[in-house]
């Protein structure tokens, strides 16, 4: 392993004791800088480096857990720290509701505030000493003149008058609004989900507004995330969750580089306070999923595009030796960052790589949903630590996959168990119009999706396909495509009949077109009154010409079918190399790849005269094409 050998040589140079390459993760050198720890996002890393130099805004769109926040933190490390500033807010003697803003070099703010507090303390001590001397003088004189009661009363009145008539020195001490240490990197502020006050700054409410007890206005001013990110990085994940008013204010802050702080509540006493403009010269890194773009203020996105970059995050990377080495380094990084779990041996590393291939849902690739993979690594390490094992092994990783299952996977297991208990899952015999489909819940859980079809006379003008089961937009469109398939492959006039399609148990709704093959098979079975084998499950998208197209989540769908007791699974041939099921399921199922609906019907339907049925299907198909095109097309022979 080249990276491990190189790491071993580095360790040997740094220490007098040579490090033996034992194939474990402990010999892997973890880069110190965050930007060098990012894997699989080469384009994003290049953009972040450029944006840090030029101080450009960046918007990163992609799947959760692919490293967006890590890249934002890495950008903060790359920004020059010598430009950082402290922000002070001073009282305004002319207008107390408009505090004065001043900026100084980082580290100087604390010194200034400390000096002011020391000076105020000295003045307060001197004032209190003078008051005390005066009080003692009054009381002493009263005792000499034998009017001690009147002397005490006079002293009390004089004390109260002087106490509230003289200014309080602490009210004149400036407040340190934003502070930085000279040795720290540029600030990184995560403003995800912040309300208006937390994002833009606020002025605290003061219930004591009379009698000399009120808190001075400048002391009630609170910095917002945009101000704390001055000369640094402001990171906002799920940018579309911010209200349009907040996005508009954020746009103003980005354009002007400064933003006054005022009270965010109209009923608060702070609503009267508005500071001078407060510096907020930050670099914004916005992040989100694809739907984030729709919810963004158009002007805000335009500002980012006009003065920055837009990056789409990769969710997989090619499975080659170079990227495998990077993934192994990621494992070492997670172990180092956790600090409490043992290192992984070679078998554990290989099992993690195997799981990364499974979760990619794409042949020849490794997943880049590293947050989920990091969770698996930590759970495996916890199991090893619980057993006081020196190293984490493959057994621990396999057990961790069972322990750290997603909610969707746990729900899927419960649903499969329940459907078998109540005989909702039919895995034997044949039935007309009923087909076992397959679906995915979340990103890593499969489920069996029974679909039923029935034929009834049309109730209105012309027949239609009626699908129930909380179908969403793409699923509804796929049903329309099935209508074309039925016309093409049955040769029947369906204008006078309604075809009812029912998705069983889809209480959370159905999205996607991967059930197209299942729906078409169930409908053809109902139309032709031909039984369907129930020991078969299927998945695949359909073109209007009857081609079986690839789908996602094929590995998890096959495993769900195996758990339900189904023996054969029909999948698109294009997905065959995507299949990476666990060893325990390989002997339980037979995977059948197909390319067309004719192959599906040949395998799944059980007609009385198979040869005649298949020949009729092909004849109808070509006859339909001939009638449409008006040209002679030879009908191929049926080969047995």
TrEMBL record:
Family designation: Belongs to the peptidase S16 family. Archaeal LonB subfamily.
Documented EC number(s): 3.4.21.-
A cellular-component GO term for this protein: plasma membrane
Keywords: ATP-binding, Cell membrane, Hydrolase, Membrane, Nucleotide-binding, Protease, Serine protease, Transmembrane, Transmembrane helix
Domain annotation Lon proteolytic: ranges: 429-607
Disordered: annotated span: 1-22
Example of a GO biological process term: protein catabolic process
Protein name: Archaeal Lon protease
Quaternary structure and partners: Homohexamer. Organized in a ring with a central cavity.
Top-level taxon of the source organism: Archaea
TM regions (residue ranges): 126-143
GO molecular function: ATP binding; ATP-dependent peptidase activity; serine-type endopeptidase activity
Native source species: Methanospirillum lacunae
């Amino acid at each position: 392993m080249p990276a491990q050998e190189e790491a071993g040589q580095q360790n040997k140079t740094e220490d007098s004791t040579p490090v033996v390459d034992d194939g474990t993760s402990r010999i892997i050198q973890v880069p110190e800088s965050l930007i060098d720890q990012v894997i699989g996002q080469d384009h994003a890393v290049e953009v972040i480096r450029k944006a840090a130099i030029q101080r450009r805004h960046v918007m990163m769109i992609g799947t959760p857990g692919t490293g967006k926040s890590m890249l934002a933190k890495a950008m903060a490390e790359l920004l020059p720290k010598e430009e950082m500033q402290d922000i002070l807010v001073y009282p305004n003697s002319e207008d107390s509701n408009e505090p004065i803003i001043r900026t100084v070099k980082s580290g100087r703010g604390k010194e200034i505030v400390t000096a002011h507090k020391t000076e105020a303390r000295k003045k307060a001590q001197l004032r209190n000493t003078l008051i005390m001397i005066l009080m003692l003088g009054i009381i002493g004189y009263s005792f000499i003149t034998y009017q001690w009661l009147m002397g005490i009363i006079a002293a009390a009145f004089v004390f109260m008058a002087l106490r509230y008539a003289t200014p309080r020195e602490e009210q004149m001490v400036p407040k340190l609004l934003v502070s930085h240490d000279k040795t720290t990197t540029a600030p990184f502020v995560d403003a995800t989900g912040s309300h208006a006050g937390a994002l833009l700054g606020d002025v605290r409410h003061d219930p004591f507004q009379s009698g000399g007890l009120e808190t001075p206005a400048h002391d009630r001013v609170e910095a917002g995330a945009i101000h704390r990110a001055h000369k640094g990085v402001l990171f906002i994940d799920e940018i579309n969750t911010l209200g349009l008013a907040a996005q508009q204010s954020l746009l103003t802050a980005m354009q002007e580089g400064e933003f006054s702080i005022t009270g965010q509540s109209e009923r608060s006493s702070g609503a009267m306070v508005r500071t001078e403009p407060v510096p907020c010269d930050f670099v914004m890194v916005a992040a989100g999923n694809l739907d984030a773009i729709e919810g963004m203020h158009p002007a805000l996105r335009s500002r980012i595009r006009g003065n920055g970059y837009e990056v789409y995050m990769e969710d997989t990377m090619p499975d080659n030796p170079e990227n495998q080495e990077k993934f192994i380094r990621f494992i070492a990084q997670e172990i180092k960052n956790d600090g409490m779990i043992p290192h992984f041996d070679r078998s554990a590393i290989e099992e993690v790589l195997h799981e990364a291939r499974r979760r990619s849902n794409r042949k020849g690739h490794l997943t880049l949903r590293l947050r989920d993979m990091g969770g698996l690594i930590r759970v495996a390490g916890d199991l090893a630590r619980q057993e006081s094992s020196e190293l984490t092994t493959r057994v621990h990783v396999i057990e961790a996959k069972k322990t750290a299952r997603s909610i969707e996977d746990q729900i899927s297991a419960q649903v499969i168990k329940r459907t078998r208990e109540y005989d909702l899952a039919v895995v034997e015999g044949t039935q007309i119009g009923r087909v076992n489909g397959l679906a995915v819940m979340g990103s890593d859980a499969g489920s069996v999706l029974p679909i039923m079809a029935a034929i009834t006379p049309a109730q209105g003008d012309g027949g239609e396909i009626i699908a129930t089961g909380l179908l969403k937009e793409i699923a509804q469109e796929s049903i329309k495509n099935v209508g074309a398939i039925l016309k093409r492959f049955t040769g029947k006039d369906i204008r006078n009949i309604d075809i009812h399609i029912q998705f069983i148990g889809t209480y959370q709704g159905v999205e996607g077109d991967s059930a197209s093959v299942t729906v078409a098979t169930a409908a053809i079975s109902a139309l032709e009154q031909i039984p369907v084998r129930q020991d078969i499950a299927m998945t695949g998208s359909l073109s209007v010409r009857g081609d079986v197209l690839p789908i996602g989540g094929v590995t998890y769908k096959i495993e769900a079918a195996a758990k339900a007791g189904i023996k054969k699974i029909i999948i698109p041939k294009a997905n065959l190399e995507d299949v990476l099921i666990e060893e325990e399921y390989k002997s339980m199922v037979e995977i059948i790849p197909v390319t067309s609906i004719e192959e599906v019907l040949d395998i799944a339907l059980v007609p009385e005269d198979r040869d005649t049925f298949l020949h009729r299907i092909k004849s109808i198909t070509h006859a339909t094409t001939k009638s449409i095109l008006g040209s002679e097309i030879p009908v191929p022979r049926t080969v047995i």
